[in-house]
Design goal:
mainly alpha, 3 helices
């Protein structure tokens, strides 16, 4: 997932579009789920 997150926006968009097409859902749902599942960086205090 990190490789996708750091990659080109156009590549992510294509991936979201293909995945949404296969699942027959809105690509925005795929994108939201992708970003919601990214780990939150830990802050050092």
């Amino acid at each position: 997932m990190d490789k996708i997150a750091k990659g080109k926006a156009a590549d992510r968009e294509a991936l979201f579009q293909r995945t949404a097409s296969r699942k027959k859902i809105n690509p925005m749902i795929i994108e939201k789920d992708f970003w919601d599942n990214q780990p939150v960086p830990k802050k050092s205090f």
